[in-house]
Structure to design on (284 residues):
């Protein structure tokens, strides 16, 4: 065999091995990715997508298992996005097969199905006072599927209300945002983690006995305007009542709700919507 022919043959063999190696490499789990501790994967799938965020939100709207009515779900906490793809040559799993496998696995650990539509179904798992929400979406009749998981938790409060800072804002601009006031989802119930902010608000008002203020509730633009007007007003009223219970004369404070009329950030993403869901104190 001539040297030229040998070189040509060697090149062809190397190219063939290179082509064959591409799908094999592509079928390895994404570097740094892993299954969620509560849920393993279907057989013959590799992990193609893995994203992890310390704090994010997930919104879904599905018909519930109990009936045809649609229900909105909103979860916040540590978020995982985990995507799987069927390995080349492996027998495919149907959408129903993937659904049924996860339904059974989640039922075994005490979870329940809360809704679903088309290729997507959702679950809630309550264990030891913690809530884990799971949204399972199957694509290409089982060719790929994705888990979006929220481990519900209170957001670490990085900005804390401070009486002196709020007082300075009121003096400079006549208004101040109250960081650290949290409400239950779609509710005017003040969460326990709001306690530090309530203490600082009380300190500000007791230290400035002549101060009269509007307590103004704001929402993002999710849901109806009418519903958000009522929700923001109810939240402001709940805060006024909470402060009255701490010795602040109710006549000094007037509640008001303006829904999404006065955003301070874009409502196009959750980070902006979180800023818009706020309470302000405005000097009368």
């Amino acid at each position: 065999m001539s040297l030229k022919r040998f070189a040509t043959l060697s090149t062809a063999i190397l190219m063939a091995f290179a082509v064959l190696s591409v799908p094999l490499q592509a079928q390895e789990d994404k570097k740094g990715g892993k299954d969620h501790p509560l849920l393993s994967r279907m057989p013959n799938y590799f992990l193609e997508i893995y994203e992890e965020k310390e704090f994010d939100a997930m919104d879904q709207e599905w018909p519930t298992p109990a009936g045809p009515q649609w229900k909105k779900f909103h979860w916040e906490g540590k978020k995982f996005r985990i995507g799987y793809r069927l390995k080349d040559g492996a027998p495919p799993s149907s959408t129903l097969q993937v659904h049924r496998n996860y339904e059974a696995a989640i039922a075994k650990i005490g979870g329940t199905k809360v809704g679903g539509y088309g290729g997507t179904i959702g679950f809630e798992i309550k264990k030891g006072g913690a809530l884990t929400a799971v949204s399972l979406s199957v694509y290409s009749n089982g060719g790929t599927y994705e888990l979006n998981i929220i481990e519900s938790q209170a957001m670490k409060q990085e900005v804390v209300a401070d009486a002196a800072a709020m007082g300075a804002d009121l003096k400079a601009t006549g208004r101040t945002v109250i960081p650290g006031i949290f409400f239950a989802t779609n509710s005017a119930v003040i969460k326990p983690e709001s306690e530090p902010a309530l203490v600082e608000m009380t300190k500000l008002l007791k230290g400035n006995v002549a101060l009269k203020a509007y307590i103004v509730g704001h929402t993002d633009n999710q849901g109806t305007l009418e519903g958000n007007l009522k929700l923001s007003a109810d939240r402001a009223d709940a805060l006024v009542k909470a402060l009255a219970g701490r010795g602040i004369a109710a006549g000094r404070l007037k509640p008001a709700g303006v829904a999404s009329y006065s955003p301070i950030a874009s409502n196009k993403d959750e980070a902006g919507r979180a800023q818009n869901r706020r309470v302000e104190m405005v000097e009368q």
The longest helix spans residues 3-26. Strands lie at 45-63, 70-86, 111-117, 120-127, 130-139, 144-152, 175-177, 213-218, 253-257, 278-283. The first strand starts at residue 45 and ends at 63. The chain has two domains: 26-152, 163-283.
